[in-house]
Design brief:
The protein is of the alpha+beta class and 500 residues long. The protein has four domains: 28-47 and 57-134 and 469-497, no CATH class; 152-239; 254-337 and 417-463, no CATH class; 348-413, no CATH class. Helices cover 44% and strands 15% of the residues. The strands form four sheets. Strands 1, 2, 5, 6, 7, 8 and 9 form a seven-stranded mixed β-sheet that branches. A five-stranded antiparallel β-sheet has the order 10-11-12-13-14, with no helix packed on it. The radius of gyration is 30 Å and the shape is globular. It starts with 9 loop residues before the first helix and ends with a strand.
Length: 500
């Protein structure tokens, strides 16, 4: 049966005397054209000191930056895969100006310019503000775990490090003695010949000892910074591949991770501040987050919403001092607009404090008087054992494995917690806070949906540089989409709101 399929075009069948521009094969509204216009506004002058007019010509740093940002925005993170895309994908070829830097050039540029990537992220924030895409009226802060470039199988506990260091040291000493004895015997037997087995074994063990000693010293330095003048617990671990990564996780799923933090503007989900934390929780992240927003925008947001992980005295004190109108969730299980079930676990925010009697009262009406006060100002309130034993809410309240009655601990920042609890009880506060789920949480989802779930580099400084690259790729993609839909235009080479 002779079916009349479409015929191949003339340009496929034969060459043309004057071939068209190959990039005309891309649709006229392809995002790569918009990205290229945006990339022309990136300032790479700070990198010029790294280059010389002598020797072989290098790739333009703006070109390498553009390639990496575009690749990350398209979910391509491997330097080798980016190299391949520059050879096969027309949009990548357009961004790369048909140049083909190999994977080593791209990888080294990514690893060696962490400071520039932070500055470049700042440029993405300023371009977004210039285009009217961010106003800092309401900013939401959140953190999420991303896997480090290592494995929990490439790690060792402090106890094991000490044991291995001692064992290897003893083995090396014995091998040195044995080698010296063998040398004497072989000098008599073989004259100019020597044996090689023992020296090779010795070399292997010395190399391993050096690696273990370095990891042990890094762990000791880390713990000294985190817990000065305290003995290091034997169970503390460190990764051989990335000393800066930390074991983090929940619900039994633990691995070596980092805890990147992003501050996202409500208007168009532009990331206006970001940093990478090595801590598993968010109890001390507000100071750095506000500092990054101030650095990138030269101002602070009017309102800021944060989940329960940031509900700490330190964070609340910093928010109060900064004069930011903050909304911090006081409960892990609910916001003020949601109705709690009667069987929810009782949290500290469920207990009422009476300043006159200096005691707490639980939801069931039982008192928790002051039990003791420590030198650092922390106060401990505890219910009576009888009250807790007869209480119908005991299973939801008392979590002590020893059967101890419920304890409430407070410090000198308790008045800040109490004030925030009262503030979040207001309906207007709940209306503002509920927008948080539409501001910051989708951004982490967008980043992870591109495929970025693990860092490609090792060490906290390089990880911070790569996360800056991830965040600026997100911002540039938001700007490109705004240009595509006509909300932003380019006037005289600068971004501007379309209606301006």
């Amino acid at each position: 049966m002779n079916i009349p399929f479409k015929k191949d075009p003339e340009e496929y069948q034969q060459g043309m005397l004057f071939p068209p521009n190959i990039f005309n094969l891309l649709s006229k509204d392809h995002y790569c054209f918009i990205f290229e216009d945006i990339f022309q506004q990136i300032d790479t002058s700070s990198l010029m000191k790294n280059y010389s007019d002598q020797g072989q010509h290098a790739f333009d740093p703006r070109l390498l930056t553009s390639i990496l940002i575009y690749a990350y925005s398209q979910g391509i993170f491997s330097a080798r895969e980016i190299q391949q895309k520059n050879k096969e994908d027309l949009s990548f070829m357009y961004i790369a100006h048909a140049q083909k830097p190999d994977f080593r050039v791209l990888s080294d540029f990514r690893k060696n310019n962490k400071t520039f990537f932070k500055a470049c992220f700042k440029q993405s924030v300023q371009l977004a503000i210039e285009a009217g895409l961010a106003s800092l009226g309401h900013v939401s802060l959140d953190g999420s775990k991303f896997k480090a470039n290592t494995s929990k199988h490439k790690a060792m506990s402090y106890k094991r490090l000490k044991e291995q260091e001692k064992q290897l040291t003893n083995e090396i000493e014995k091998l040195i003695e044995k080698a010296a004895k063998c040398d004497e015997e072989e000098d008599q037997q073989y004259k100019d010949q020597t044996g090689y087995e023992i020296p090779e074994d010795l070399k292997h063990k010395e190399k391993r000892l050096k690696k273990i000693t370095a990891a042990k010293e890094a762990l000791e330095k880390r713990e000294q910074e985190l817990n000065p003048n305290k003995n290091i617990e034997d169970k503390k671990q460190i990764s051989f591949a990335d000393h800066d990564a930390r074991i983090m996780g929940k619900k039994g799923q633990f691995d070596y991770n980092y805890n990147p933090q992003i501050s996202v503007d409500e208007d168009n989900q532009i990331i206006v501040g970001q940093h990478v934390s090595q801590k598993a929780n968010d109890k001390n992240e507000v100071s750095e987050a506000l500092g990054q927003i101030q650095k990138n925008t030269e101002t602070l947001p009017e309102k800021m919403s944060l989940d329960n992980g940031y509900f700490s005295g330190t964070n609340l004190e910093i928010l109060e001092e900064s004069k930011v109108d903050a909304y911090v969730a006081c409960s892990k299980e609910t916001t003020t607009l949601e109705i709690r079930n009667d069987d929810h676990e009782l949290e500290k925010s469920d207990f009422k404090y009476n300043e006159q009697t200096d005691c707490f009262t639980c939801p069931e009406g039982h008192s928790l008087p002051l039990k003791r006060e420590r030198a650092n100002g922390r106060k401990i309130y505890q219910a009576s054992k009888y009250d807790c034993n007869v209480c119908s809410a005991k299973s939801r309240c008392c979590k002590s494995q020893k059967g101890e009655p419920r304890i409430i601990t407070v410090d000198d920042k308790e008045h800040l917690r109490a004030a925030m609890i009262e503030k979040m009880k207001q309906k207007s506060s709940g209306e503002i806070y509920k927008n948080r789920k539409h501001i910051v949480e989708p951004v982490f989802g967008q980043i992870k949906n591109t495929g970025f779930r693990q860092f490609s580099v090792r060490g906290s400084p390089k990880v911070a540089g790569e996360f800056s690259l991830v965040c600026m790729a997100h911002n540039f993609l938001k700007i490109a989409r705004a240009i595509f839909r006509g909300a932003v235009c380019i006037k005289s080479g600068r971004l501007a709101p379309a209606l301006a």
